[in-house]
Structures are given as C-alpha cells and as structure tokens.
Amino acid sequence: MDLDVHLGTDERDWEPTADGTLRMAIVGLGWWSRERVLPALADLENCRATVGVSGSAAKRERVVADWASVEHGLSYDEFAAGEAVDAYDAVYVCTPNALHLPHVETAAGFGKAVLCEKPMEATVERAERLVSACEDADVPLMVGYRMQTDRACRAVRRIVREGVVGDPVQVHGHMSQPIAEMFDDPSHWRLEPDLAGPGASVTDLGVYPINTTRFVLDADPVAVSASTWSGGGEWFDRVPDERASFQLSFPDGVTALCSVSQNAYHTAEFRVVGTEGEVRMRPGFFGDRENELLVATTEGETTVTYEPADQMREIFCFFADRVLGGKTIPADGEHGLVDMRAVEAVYAAAEDATRHQL
Questions:
Q1: Residue 127 belongs to what H/E stretch?
Q2: In whole angstroms, what is the distance from residue 170 CA to residue 206 CA?
Q3: What is the rounded distance in angstroms from the CA atom of residue 231 to the CA atom of residue 213?
Q4: Which of 96, 261, 286, 296 is deepest in the core (most CB within 10 A)?
Q5: Which DSSP helix (H) or strand (E) runs through 142?
Q6: How would you label 61-76 residue by residue, b for 16+ Cβ within 10 Å and e otherwise?
Q7: Same domain, 172 and 112
Q8: Is the pLDDT of residue 132 over 60?
Q9: What pLDDT digit, counting tens, does each position of 249-269 carry?
Q10: d(C-alpha 312, C-alpha 145), whole Å
Q11: In this structure, what CATH number is given to the domain that contains residue 288?
C-alpha cells in the first residue's frame, strides 16, 4: 500500500511564508509555560517570547534570568495597566481556565493578537464574552488545539478526507493520566470547579478527542450522551468526573465514542473506522512520545512511526505565520465555542441521563 503522500513524517503539509517575527507576552508562568512553551520558542525564527507575566515575583525573575529574549517580567496588575505594551505583538494565555477572560480582554484592549489555551474558559457564557472581546477589538484569536498542527494528526486527517478508509463510520478516542502522580497536590486547580469549570476529566482531557474528531471529520457534533463517575476522596470529591465516557453524534450517522480519566494509566488512542478500512493513531495526544500510525484496508496494512514532536513549537510557528501574514485562523473563537458547548452538554447529559442536542 503506497501511502507516502498521506503519511509524510518529515515535512509539514503547511509552510510558514509570512515575513517577520511575532513577539509574544506569555501570560501565566506555570510549569507548562516554563518547561514546554519557552523552550519551544527559543529557536523559532518567526516567533519569540519577550514578556513574561505572572503573579509570582520569583517566576518572573527566573524567566527573565533564564531566557535572553524575555526582556520584561510583569505582574498581572502591571500587564493590565499596559506596562511594556510596546514590547510584544501578541499574547499567549496559559492561566487556569476561569482566568482566561480578563487576560484576553486586556490583550484585546491593547490591540494584541491572542493565542488562548483550551478550553477557552470555564463556562460557555464566559467563553462567548472572550470571543466578543476579540471581535469587538478586531484582533485575531486562535485557540491552542495542538493536535491541529501535529503531523501525525494531520496525516490522519488527510487519510480520512481523501477516502483511504472509505466513508467514516465510527471514531474512538481515549485519553487518561494519573493526575495525582503528576502534581502531588489534591488542591491543584484542574480539580477546582471555580478555576477549571464543571469538572476535571472532560474539561481538561475530553476536549482532545472532541476537537480532534471535529478536525479530522470536518464536522460538528449534533447530540451527546454521557456517563461520569467519581470515587471522591481528597482528590476527586469536588468534581463529578474522575472518569467519563460519552458519545457524540455527527451528521450522516457517524458517532464518536470517547473516554477520559484523570486517575488512570497514562495512555491515549485515536481511531477512525470507515467503510473500507481504519486508521489508528497511538498514543496520539501526547506530543512528547513516539507516535505510531496504523492504516489498514482490504489491500493490507501500513505502519509508520513519528518521532516525538514539539507540539508547542508547531502551534506557535503556525500562529505567528497566520498573524504576520494576515491569514485565516481555522481554530478561531467560534470554532472553540463549539467545543465549549459540547463539554457543557457532556456534563448535563451525564447529570440527567438523557441525550442532549447541540
């Protein structure tokens, strides 16, 4: 089976063409920004970090000391007041979900493009206000769906859209991780509804299979049914979804069966079954691991391995090229609102044990 044109492991299927370098203010200097974002930006030609924003003076000082491109360390109040506003062109927001809105409003007020981590906010209503803030200020907004620039995921998209496995019939998506081993803190914000949103597993992990399914199928869900469970204890006594499973219904009878958990083995998989074959990506959603793609049809099977990818490097390169070139942003605010509504529908469907229309 000759799938080289679909699988291409070495080249992007998009290339940056815009001139210039986009200067970023990194808002939120937690472990993700310090360990994943700043290293990813260190050697990008079209994007670099020039400002770090945090409520912690120690984190601000450390980032300025460790990264030569970061010229300014600001508190949240200083950022909101407009200090060093001429030192950056765009803002990356990576704070707890319920704090995204005020930082995006600040960025939009200064006329800065925004890359906002997913999910956009803790509720649909706040996410709608976030989108409106960017629309009213006429600034670009992109939601940080890393899978949309991941090379393995984009290969899955090409395979499905070009009919290699026939017409899509079912999608299976799973993602889980042992959050207690990752953070060693039961008060972590992802387990706090006031900061994370209505739950823990669906809000943080469920968005991966939801958005990746939409991206691959180029379709939006029309209904959802769901089940959640939480065993309580000091880790999960505030959230309903230590574990969750849900089914998304798409047009033309396609269904996506998804499962997520914040208290399970660290694993993931994304699979599309079609009328003439299947494509499977594993582990899929974890960019720091080797990724295997399996394509099987009546003609045989092909497996290809993708080296660990720096997903943050790819998404910042893509974002910068879109903003610098004035190009269309696929994962914009309206796109992100579809996921927000789907996530809220999952919790509602699980709570009342009924199917919810979207």
A1: helix 124-137
A2: 17
A3: 29
A4: 261
A5: strand 141-143
A6: ebbbeebeebebbbeb
A7: no
A8: yes
A9: 999 999 999 999 999 999 999
A10: 10
A11: 3.30.360.10
Identity of the residue numbered 142? M
| Alpha-carbon torsion angle 242, 311, 21, 69, nearest 10 | 70
Q: Is 326 exposed, middle or buried (0-12, 13-18, 19+ CB in 10 A)?
A: exposed
**Which H/E stretch holds residue 19?**
none
CA gap 211, 180 in Å, rounded: 25
Average pLDDT over every residue of 273-277 = 98
Last residue of a domain, one of 116, 145, 174: 145
The verdict on 158 and 276 lying in the same domain is yes
| Residue 188 confidence class, pLDDT cut points 50, 70, 90 | very high
**49 found inside a domain:** yes
As given in the structure block, the two tokens for residue 148 are 């949309």
Report the pLDDT averaged over residues 331-349: 98
* C-alpha–C-alpha distance, residues 213 and 87, integer Å: 38
10's CB contacts (< 8 A; 6+ apart) are: none
Domain that holds residue 187: 147-310+330-357
Question: What is the pTM assigned to this prediction?
Answer: 0.96
